Amino acid sequence: MDLQTRALHEGYTKDSQGTMAVPIYMTTAYEFRDAEHAANLFALKELGNIYTRLNNPTTDVFEKRFASLEGGEAALATSSGMSAIFYAIANAAEAGDNIICARQLYGGSLTLTAHTLKRFGIEARFFDVHNPKSIEALIDDKTKVIFFESLTNPSIDVADIEAITTIANKHGILTVVDNTVATPVLCRPLEHGADVTVHSASKYTTGQGLAIGGILVERKGLLEKLRGNARYAHFNEPDHSYHGLVYVDVPLPPFTLRARLSLLRDLGAASSPFNSWLFIQGMETLSLRIKEHSANALALAQFLESHPKVKKVNYPGLKSNVNYANAQKYFENGACSGLLSFEVENLDAAIKIVNATKLYSLVVNIGDSKSIITHPASTTHQQLTESELIACGVPSGLIRISCGLESAKDLIADMKQALEA
């Protein structure tokens, strides 16, 4: 089935009431048939619902449907995009290990990898997404993850996914790709060699800024990369916290299985069934919305590129952009989502423009049906030093726009008056 058809039907078999809409199963727990049934579920001899922190029928539909859109084998929903990123890394690395990350990351991802994980004993090493060849010099026998974004936020760069995953596969290292901005509608990193994708479902998936949530997706056949791989002994040795289970010996997708049975069980960042239901609603129109977001962003980018007060526009849909070739290679029909950024003379000019807009809302979010304007250096990336801001592509004069679904004509008109105010 095509992606849009799967977005409407995948993962749901109508219940006894024949409900067309996926029901919201608002429950914490489930009754077992008898003691043997309960024991079999906990021992994985039978599959079924145990407790909503681990699984839930509504969330199960969300996971199956999203995995299908990404072309993956299985998915795990979490309470936020940040928890999905943390679980993806913590599922592979432990104290004494290191991970290799692109410098061009969302501000929260930068602080997680560079600072918070450091307190867990996991070192982050950084590379420029435009220079994947530099990755090899950072690799050693303790490297467990290479982490990057398919379409970076807010520098708006497009990673060469195949170049990065080729290096990772050469060394038997897992790749984790944040595909939030592109969404599976435009880019499917698993089809280009990535092992795991993560998303903030709070963005384009819900589409109206209604709920916080995240999801990670495991590619098909990841078992063979993990089996016998010395980097990932914890997948190949008995897990004494779960009856001595060896994950590569279970006929289930191993990465999401361990993330569920170990991390979700113990850390508990589970998706609310209601939020999972909201994400399911959003997925039904995702492919339609992304086309409009992308068209609006391209129109605005073309206007900004022609304006004398704009020093630089970051949008891969522009033929003049350094990321244009990668966008044509990895993104469906060359569409580039609704996120763009542009640079003006300095901090004062940027703040003046942000304050002068009327149609754009000053919000630290993206992917909403309504257009959003953000000044990253003073908000999402405020915790970084000036040199760190420059390194990750966020100078003080940078303004980020998340183009909504308003008329492109109105979006351009409002930006024009803000630039010229």
Topology, please?
Elements lengths: L2 H7 L25 H8 L14 H14 L1 E7 L2 H10 L7 E5 L4 H10 L6 E5 L15 E7 L11 H10 L3 E5 L4 H4 L9 E5 L13 E6 L2 H5 L6 H4 L17 H14 L5 H33 L6 E3 L9 H7 L8 E5 L3 H10 L4 E2 L9 E3 L11 H6 L6 E5 L5 H12 L2
Parallel strand pairs: 2-3, 2-4, 4-5, 5-6, 10-11
Antiparallel strand pairs: 1-7, 6-7, 8-9, 9-12, 11-12
Helix pairs in contact: 1-3, 1-11, 3-11, 13-15
Summarize the structure.
This protein is 37% helix and 14% strand. It has helices at residues 3-9, 35-42, 57-70, 81-90, 107-116, 161-170, 183-186, 222-226, 233-236, 254-267, 273-305, 324-330, 347-356, 386-391, 408-419, and strands at 72-78, 98-102, 123-127, 143-149, 174-178, 196-200, 214-219, 312-314, 339-343, 361-362, 372-374, 398-402. The strands form 2 sheets. The protein has a 7-stranded mixed β-sheet with strand order 1-7-6-5-4-2-3, with helices on both faces. Strands 8-9-12-11-10 form a 5-stranded mixed β-sheet.
Task: Walk me through this protein's architecture.
The protein is α/β, with parallel strands linked by helices. The longest helix has 33 residues, at 273-305. The relative contact order is 0.13. Helix 5 links the parallel strand 2 and strand 3 (123-127). It has helices at 3-9, 35-42, 57-70, 81-90, 107-116, 161-170, 183-186, 222-226, 233-236, 254-267, 273-305, 324-330, 347-356, 386-391, 408-419; strands spanning 72-78, 98-102, 123-127, 143-149, 174-178, 196-200, 214-219, 312-314, 339-343, 361-362, 372-374, 398-402. Helices cover 37% and strands 14% of the residues. It folds into 2 domains: 3-274, Aspartate Aminotransferase, domain 2 (3-Layer(aba) Sandwich), CATH 3.40.640; 286-419, Alpha-Beta Complex (Aspartate Aminotransferase, domain 1), CATH 3.90.1150. The strands form 2 sheets. A 7-stranded mixed beta sheet has the order 1-7-6-5-4-2-3, sandwiched between helices.
